Structures are given as C-alpha cells and as structure tokens.
TrEMBL record:
Family from the record: Belongs to the NPC2 family.
Compartments in which it is found: Secreted
Record domain MD-2-related lipid-recognition: where: 25-146
Keyword Nucleotide-binding recorded: no
One function term, GO molecular function aspect: cholesterol binding
This protein's name: NPC intracellular cholesterol transporter 2
One BP term from GO: intracellular cholesterol transport
Superkingdom as given in the UniProt entry: Eukaryota
PANTHER family in alphabetical order: NIEMANN PICK TYPE C2 PROTEIN NPC2-RELATED, NPC INTRACELLULAR CHOLESTEROL TRANSPORTER 2
One of the Pfam families matching this protein, by short name: E1_DerP2_DerF2
Amino acid sequence: MVPSPLALLLALGAAATALAEPLRFVDCGSIDGSIQEVNVSPCPTQPCLLHKGTSYSINVTFASKIESQGSKARVYGEMLHVDVPFPIPEPDGCKSGIQCPIQKGHSYSYLNKLPVKSEYPSIKLIVKWELVDDQDQMLFCWKIPVQITS
C-alpha cells in the first residue's frame, strides 16, 4: 500500500513539530518578566548535545511585567555551582528581536545565538541565560543541562 500525499504531509508535520518542541527549563529568578517558552535549536533531547564549532539558535518567549528602555543578556556555564561567564555575539536584547522600549504586559520573542567554540572542553554543565532590564533586574533567567561534545 502506497501512503497518500496527505498521510506523508501529516507525518512530516508531526516530525517537524517534535523537533521544535519547547525545552524543559528551570526558571532561576525571573522577576520583571515571565517565561512562556524556551527553544534551543537544534536540541531534540536533553541534555542538549552542543557540538564544538557549531552555533545554536536561542528563542525565548516572555512577557514583561515592567517598562524598560533596554535589556542586556548575560550567559554563564555553571559548573560545581560556580557561574563562568560565557561570551555571546550580541548581548543587547534590543538588537536580539526585542522591540525597545520594553512595555509592561507585552510579550516578546528574544532571539540570539549560542556559539560553541572548538577550544571549549568536552564537559557536562548547566547553561544559565539571563536577560536584565535597565535597572539590572531579571526579565528572565533560565537554566538547561548541556553536554559539550566534539
């Protein structure tokens, strides 16, 4: 029996949806905003396997509880409860998909890249991603487990 084009389309749609499934994350102190969804792509399973020399897309949907002129991202690799700063190409949230000034009650899609450099060690750690407002308060903070691999 040959599958119908509709059956194939439905199967492909289900597979694509499975790949784009939101991540399970830990909220680590969102005060001035509330996280609705976190996506890291590609990351079909957790912990996310981050391959050296690859860049990953980050998409965080959140709602702001405050007004803010701007926002700034800070990213850390958490190892043994110590936060090690992790450089990202664009720390300015207003240049990362967020329409500034940020308005209270609005939802935003924050978009950024997480580059995994070839010189990083192959280890398991927690990625901690913060976005702070212009008063240095947390718009969002989330954590996910990752494993850096060759």
